[in-house]
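Below is how a single chain appears once it has passed through the pipeline. First comes the sequence as given, then the structure the pipeline wrote out for it. We keep one example in the README because the format questions we get most often are answered faster by looking than by reading.
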Amino acid sequence: MAGMTTHAHIHTIQVFGIAHCDTVKKARQWLTTQQLDFVWHDFKKAPPTAEHIAAWQQAVGWDKLLNRQGQTWRKLSPEQQAQIRDAPSAAAFLLQQPSAIKRPVVQWPDGRTTIGFKADVWAEVVSTGALNNG
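Resulting structure:
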């Protein structure tokens, strides 16, 4: 499936984002409604590490991880935006401005990583074994 790849296996769904983000709220509600346990990681309380960002970039690509629709990106000047042109420049920016990461980032127990929330995509991910630990 496009936009997904694997990473180290984990035991519980890991959800990363910002609590007040509407998409994150919908995603967390969907998981709760499906009675799926997950661990919540709020970027505002515990920003992602360089290792997280590198793994997510490897999983989905730096261009998909970078949220060009959000306020953080739109506040940048065209010159600042132009400086973010590859994985290293995007990683440095996202480390300083985690609000510019497309949310939520989800690490599934089978090793897949997804970005954003669409109920039908998540239902397919779950039905194709995402909850299986390796």
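Confidence is low (pLDDT under 50) at residues 1-9.

See the next section for the split statistics.
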